[in-house]
Amino acid sequence: MKDLHLNLRFLEIFLRLSILPLTIASAFTVVQTKDSTDQYGKVEFTNISSFKFLFSMNCISAPYALISATLLMSLRENRTTWSFFLLDQLIAYLMVTSSSAAAELLYLAHEGDREVSWSEVCSYFGKFCSKGETSLVLHFLALLCFICLSLISALRVFRKFEPPSVSAKEEGRQGSDLH
C-alpha cells in the first residue's frame, strides 16, 4: 500500500509539472495567432473571445500546477487533499469549456456554416488557423493531465472514508424489499 501511495504521489507531481510546459507553450502559441490578407484585413487572437478564454485558462492553470506541485512536495498529504480535489476539478472543468469553445471556433473556421451563410476562413487565414490548432492541441494535452489529476485527487479524498456499514437488521429489510 505504501508503494502505491509513493507511486501515486510521484505520478501526481509528474503530471502537475508536465502541465507547465504544455500550458506555457499553448499560451505563447495562441498569442502568436494572427494573420492578415489584403482582401479581408487582419485577425488576431484578441478578436476572438474563445481564444482569449483559452489564453486565460493557460495563464491560470500554469501557476496553479506549479504551486500545487510545490505544495505537494513540501506538505503532508492530509493538509491539502480537499483543496487539491476541489481546485483540480474546477480547473479541469474550466479547461474543458475553454478548449471546447476554441475547438468549435476552429471547426467553423475550417468548415464554415452554410445555414447561417458563414464561409470557411482557413483558406484565407491559414497561419491563424494553424497556430490556433497548435495551441488547442497543447491545451488538450494539458487538459488530459488535469483529468488524470482530478481522478487521482478524487481517489486520495475518497479512500479516506470507509464504505457505509450495513447492519443485520438493514440487510433483512433490504432483502425483503427485493421480493
TrEMBL record:
Homodimer and heterodimers. This is CASP-like protein. It is a multi-pass membrane protein. Residues 8-145 form the Casparian strip membrane protein domain. Belongs to the Casparian strip membrane proteins (CASP) family. Keywords: Cell membrane, Membrane, Transmembrane, Transmembrane helix. It comes from the Eukaryota. InterPro entries: CASP/CASPL, CASP_dom. GO terms for cellular component: plasma membrane. It is found in: Cell membrane. The lineage of its organism: Eukaryota, Viridiplantae, Streptophyta, Embryophyta, Tracheophyta. The chain crosses the membrane at residues 12-31, 51-72, 136-158. Pfam families: CASP_dom.
